[in-house]
Amino acid sequence: MWAPATAVGESCQGRPATIVGTGADIQGTDGDDVIVTGTSTVAYTHAGNDLVCVTPSAADQIWVDTGPGDDVVDASASTARRTAADLGLGVDRYLGSPGLDSVSANGADDTFDAAGGSNGMTLEITGPAGSVTGSYRGSGVDFIGVRSTDRDVTVELDGQVVVDGVPAAEITGFHFAHVQAPGAVLRGNSDDNYLAVRGCSLRIDGAGGDDRIISNPYAGDDTLIFECETKSRLSGGQGDDKIRGRGGHDRLAGNRGNDLLQGGADADLMLGGAGNDELEGGASRDLLRGNGGNDTLKGNPGPDTLLGNRGRDRADGHQGRDRCAAELDRHCER
């Protein structure tokens, strides 16, 4: 329900509003609308190049669906706990609220500016990189998800989103990331990151900070399914990292710091680094190398190979016929 703005006298970014919300829902037109949400909690702008201002209200949640067109959603004055937007086709811009923003975009050519709070940004990549470079700026503790069923994607936090080798967007200020694509590469930043990938050929490179790194995390409602054999290369950085490979043939490397490495169901290679690391194999035939530091190696089921290398290391083969080389070992058959 809405009223013509000329009867209300509202404006949005200095432009006279053409629609002001007075009920639960707003229905825009196929023309260029200037919408003030008012007391409405849902706004469908439909086609056209639309401008939407989310105004202060007592609502807990506000949702905006912009439809096709080059649209702008200004949520900077929103007082809702959560403001959500689905940005359709077109080159769109979203100005964040002081609260929680949840935004989904079609492609990587839009602009997202967070204003604070805990925010989530999801990019649906359905085609090649376009002529317009997108820009996505989080507030430092935010989540970005990038999904594509048929394009290879590289995401570098505080860097770029690259689609099939072509830069598509610039990103900064994100703390958590999840990339789903046939070929997915994800690189962290200096924060304590949560980094996850799903697909066929997967790679994660941690940086500074104490990172949590995982391939093929547990499935949810937004999980893409890829019919392929998964191979992952997961590497920590300078901090104390937790790295887990789940399904597929994984290569896990701790690098610096005191790291925890956990294998999955298939045969994995796990490499500790310079710190005091804990390496734990999965259900198959795994190779664990402690390298520097005083490490703990655990075999679990399957015929595993546990090699402590430098430092004073502990090896426990558990089930299976295992080969161990460490200062202290148990359940090792050879």
UniProtKB/TrEMBL annotation:
Cell location: Secreted
Superkingdom field: Bacteria
Major subcellular site: secreted
SUPFAM superfamilies: beta-Roll
Pfam families on file: HemolysinCabind (PF00353)
Location of region: Disordered: 233-258, 289-322
Statement: the UniProt record of this protein carries the keyword Secreted: yes
Keywords: Secreted
Residue ranges that the Swiss-Prot or TrEMBL entry lists as coiled coil: none
GO MF term set: calcium ion binding
Cellular component annotations (GO), alphabetically ordered: extracellular region
Comp. bias intervals (Basic and acidic residues): 239-253, 310-322
Gene3D superfamilies referenced in this protein's UniProt entry, alphabetically: Serralysin-like metalloprotease, C-terminal
PANTHER family noted in UniProt: S-LAYER PROTEIN (PTHR38340)
UniProt-recorded name of the protein: Calcium-binding protein
